[in-house]
């Protein structure tokens, strides 16, 4: 983990690519004006990392937002994901082409397998490896892969995933998985860091927010960054997008980082990677 400096800061992936450690997630951001504006506001505020997926049905708007922002494409770390119904070698290649078309770009900075579809993700990974070798993707990774999924994939993979994007928040720390990823130079990334809004109900978060004079969201984002985790809080409101990134003028004490680590209760707000049927 590099020093946490500002919104332009990044982690270095195993292949040397710099990945901004704070990004905007656009899950559930509506296609059209809502997502276009969210992306523009984020880029205007200094974000340089936008995370979407084909299943979000808003890639067109994300591409439009990047174009309208005036920020050069090469300055934006753009991420998308291959959906479950597109697993398999040929269909993954096609899904990738379709994503590029919608996003209006000729390459991705990071492409992820969205979920570990049993019996299929190895073929899908082979497609990602080939796209990577063709320099059409700057980095490849996975999402929602538990340790056994990663071990199974790495058993035959030529390239170890560079990123694993997981549901991650104080109620689902999964420190063993973070440690496993670190040991294998897989960058850990958090989705749903705000527990789908439930984080705002926790007394311990209210206390910490008061102690540091920060919002609850800012406390969580800062916690992620201090743990060396990339994080992509989601919002469609301009003031929230700006506020979520206002985390570079304070530091959580080690005791408070530990306090949040200890809230772990293996509680998911999203699907279980071992039991999903979509």
Summarize the SSE layout with pairings:
Layout (H helix, E strand, L loop, with lengths): L9 E3 L5 E3 L3 E2 L7 H13 L3 E3 L7 H11 L7 E6 L6 H15 L6 E4 L7 H13 L6 E4 L3 H10 L6 E5 L7 H9 L3 E5 L11 H10 L3 H11 L3 E2 L6 H7 L9 H8 L17
Parallel strand pairs: 3-4, 4-5, 5-6, 6-7, 7-8, 8-9, 9-10
Antiparallel strand pairs: 1-2
Helix pairs in contact: 1-2, 2-3, 3-4
GO molecular function, one term: oxidoreductase activity, acting on the CH-OH group of donors, NAD or NADP as acceptor
Protein name: Aldo/keto reductase
InterPro entries: AKR (IPR020471), AKR5G (IPR044500), Aldo/ket_reductase_CS (IPR018170), NAD(P)_OxRdtase_dom_sf (IPR036812), NADP_OxRdtase_dom (IPR023210)
What would you note in describing this structure?
This protein has 278 residues and is α/β, with parallel strands linked by helices. The protein has a single domain, classed as TIM Barrel (Alpha-Beta Barrel), CATH 3.20.20. It is 38% helix and 13% strand. The chain has ten helices and ten strands. It has helices at residues 33-45, 59-69, 89-103, 121-133, 147-156, 175-183, 203-212, 216-226, 238-244, 254-261, and strands at 10-12, 18-20, 24-25, 49-51, 77-82, 110-113, 140-143, 163-167, 187-191, 230-231. The strands form two sheets. The chain has an eight-stranded parallel β-sheet. Strands 1-2 form a two-stranded antiparallel sheet. α6 links the parallel β8 (163-167) and β9. α2 (59-69) packs across α3 (89-103) and α3 crosses α4 (121-133). The longest helix has 15 residues, at 89-103. The mean pLDDT is 97. Substrate binds at residue 114. It comes from Arenibacter nanhaiticus. The active site is at 56 (proton donor). This is Aldo/keto reductase. GO terms for molecular function: oxidoreductase activity, acting on the CH-OH group of donors, NAD or NADP as acceptor.
